[in-house]
Amino acid sequence: MKKSEQEWQQQLSTEQFRVTRLKGTEAPFSGDLLYHEEQGSYHCVCCGQHLFDSGTKFDAGCGWPSFYQSIASQVRYVTDSSHGMQRTEILCANCDAHLGHVFDDGPAPTGQRYCVNSVSLRFKKDE
């Protein structure tokens, strides 16, 4: 999914654009979805792609919503060496929206912690 920077700016809030298109990070412990506990699914705020299920969400205490697993093939992984660190960036596989990073310090069964910016997600409640 390719859109111009201007099209994304028209579609997204200033903060959503800064995080998803410019690879920003929301302040820790500030996101609306951090303590969100309803059952449902989490989708890309830019294109609507289903990225995570609520059953894989956990409280990592890191300040951002965390999941131990993504929906298969819906997240793309890129090496990120910015800020003097070596990390794995996670992007929406459909529109390349920056979601956050994944770390190898999560719970079983995967051992993964997908650390995701709330503003990059839209929640859809199970019906």
UniProtKB/TrEMBL annotation:
Record EC number: 1.8.4.12
Q: Per its UniProt entry, which superkingdom is the organism in?
A: Bacteria
Reactions catalysed, semicolon-separated, are:
L-methionyl-[protein] + [thioredoxin]-disulfide + H2O = L-methionyl-(R)-S-oxide-[protein] + [thioredoxin]-dithiol
Keyword Transcription (UniProt): no
Q: Which residues cross the membrane?
A: none
Q: Write down the PROSITE patterns for this protein, in alphabetical order.
A: MSRB (PS51790)
MsrB domain sequence ranges: 5-126
Checking SUPFAM superfamilies in the record gives: Mss4-like
Keyword list (alphabetical) reads:
Oxidoreductase
What are the recorded GO MF terms, alphabetically? peptide-methionine (R)-S-oxide reductase activity
- Record-linked Pfam families: SelR
Q: Which family does it belong to?
A: Belongs to the MsrB Met sulfoxide reductase family.
Q: What is this protein called?
A: peptide-methionine (R)-S-oxide reductase
Q: Which organism is it from?
A: Alkalimonas collagenimarina
